[in-house]
Amino acid sequence: MEQVTVKQQSSLNIAGKVKDYMMLIKFSLSFMVVFSAVISYLLAPKVVEFDWLHIILLFTGGLLVTGSANTVNQIVEKDTDAMMMRTSKRPVASGRMQPAEAWAFAIIAIAAGLFILGYFFNWLSAGLALFSWFVYAYMYTPLKKVSAVSVLLGAVPGALPCLIGWAAGQDELSAGGWVLFAIQFFWQFPHFWAIAWISHKDYTNAGFKLMPSVEGPTKYSAIQSIIYSLVLIPVGMLPYLVGMSGMISFYIVLVANLMMLWLSIRLYREMEKKAARRVMFGSYIYLAVVLLALLMDKIPVG
């Protein structure tokens, strides 16, 4: 009986450690980031078939790099994370994991991720991944307590997965990669400000300055979401204009952009967390729909 109890306790410890590492890398966020990299890779003209080995390698390499950046973020922000209800249960902030263990994981993960990208794809994609990792971990993270400009800076590593995936498949930075980068870059503003709107009190107590208005969730902040949603409309037409995808995806993306605009307008009119949640969840759906529509309607070369 005692032996069974020991085994059960061991299983619980392993399960708890796995859960902690999933929280450490922010798995849901990392998955979304790597998803955009994989779709961008598949959209590259040189990629003409679904090679599952390379897709899995790209997913793994991207997940390791992104997970490492998120780990460094949690180490640096462990004290502020402990102050916020939304993040207080993270492994480093709660004390369940020592910073030394987290640092060891971050270093091993970034090294392994860069090796996978460089060796199995090209060193251009690995270099972009390293640049993205550095900007997120060492520029965006500390700037969040200084100025709301951090959101603009953070949108760069947030959109770089598209360029990383494109470079991995195309071996160069050409128009298609920059178009995908632009879509994901401008998409982040209404998406992130909706999250900041919902968690404004927590962020303010922790000293973060993330809303476009110093007063927080105001009409001005909502107008900014509307402006960036408007910008997405012409940007969303670029894949068709540069010959990446066809007319079907053109209309799907247009409808998705109009949906984002309408959700942002509703936020301006209602000025409530409920409306901000609509923008946040709508933006998740938007990105998946747009990227998958572009892939399904990809125009083959030749």
From TrEMBL:
<keyword id="KW-0808">Transferase</keyword>
<comment type="function">
    <text>Converts heme B (protoheme IX) to heme O by substitution of the vinyl group on carbon 2 of heme B porphyrin ring with a hydroxyethyl farnesyl side group.</text>
</comment>
<feature type="transmembrane region" description="Helical">
    <location>
        <begin position="123"/>
        <end position="141"/>
    </location>
</feature>
<feature type="transmembrane region" description="Helical">
    <location>
        <begin position="248"/>
        <end position="267"/>
    </location>
</feature>
<feature type="transmembrane region" description="Helical">
    <location>
        <begin position="279"/>
        <end position="296"/>
    </location>
</feature>
<dbReference type="GO" id="GO:0048034">
    <property type="term" value="P:heme O biosynthetic process"/>
</dbReference>
<dbReference type="GO" id="GO:0008495">
    <property type="term" value="F:protoheme IX farnesyltransferase activity"/>
</dbReference>
<dbReference type="GO" id="GO:0005886">
    <property type="term" value="C:plasma membrane"/>
</dbReference>
<dbReference type="InterPro" id="IPR006369">
    <property type="entry name" value="Protohaem_IX_farnesylTrfase"/>
</dbReference>
<comment type="pathway">
    <text>Porphyrin-containing compound metabolism; heme O biosynthesis; heme O from protoheme: step 1/1.</text>
</comment>
<feature type="transmembrane region" description="Helical">
    <location>
        <begin position="175"/>
        <end position="199"/>
    </location>
</feature>
<feature type="transmembrane region" description="Helical">
    <location>
        <begin position="220"/>
        <end position="242"/>
    </location>
</feature>
<keyword id="KW-0812">Transmembrane</keyword>
<feature type="transmembrane region" description="Helical">
    <location>
        <begin position="148"/>
        <end position="169"/>
    </location>
</feature>
<keyword id="KW-1133">Transmembrane helix</keyword>
<dbReference type="InterPro" id="IPR000537">
    <property type="entry name" value="UbiA_prenyltransferase"/>
</dbReference>
<keyword id="KW-0472">Membrane</keyword>
<feature type="transmembrane region" description="Helical">
    <location>
        <begin position="55"/>
        <end position="76"/>
    </location>
</feature>
<keyword id="KW-1003">Cell membrane</keyword>
<keyword id="KW-0350">Heme biosynthesis</keyword>
<dbReference type="Pfam" id="PF01040">
    <property type="entry name" value="UbiA"/>
</dbReference>
<dbReference type="InterPro" id="IPR030470">
    <property type="entry name" value="UbiA_prenylTrfase_CS"/>
</dbReference>
<dbReference type="InterPro" id="IPR044878">
    <property type="entry name" value="UbiA_sf"/>
</dbReference>
<comment type="similarity">
    <text>Belongs to the UbiA prenyltransferase family. Protoheme IX farnesyltransferase subfamily.</text>
</comment>
<protein>
    <recommendedName>
        <fullName>Protoheme IX farnesyltransferase</fullName>
        <ecNumber>2.5.1.141</ecNumber>
    </recommendedName>
</protein>
<feature type="transmembrane region" description="Helical">
    <location>
        <begin position="97"/>
        <end position="117"/>
    </location>
</feature>
<feature type="transmembrane region" description="Helical">
    <location>
        <begin position="21"/>
        <end position="43"/>
    </location>
</feature>
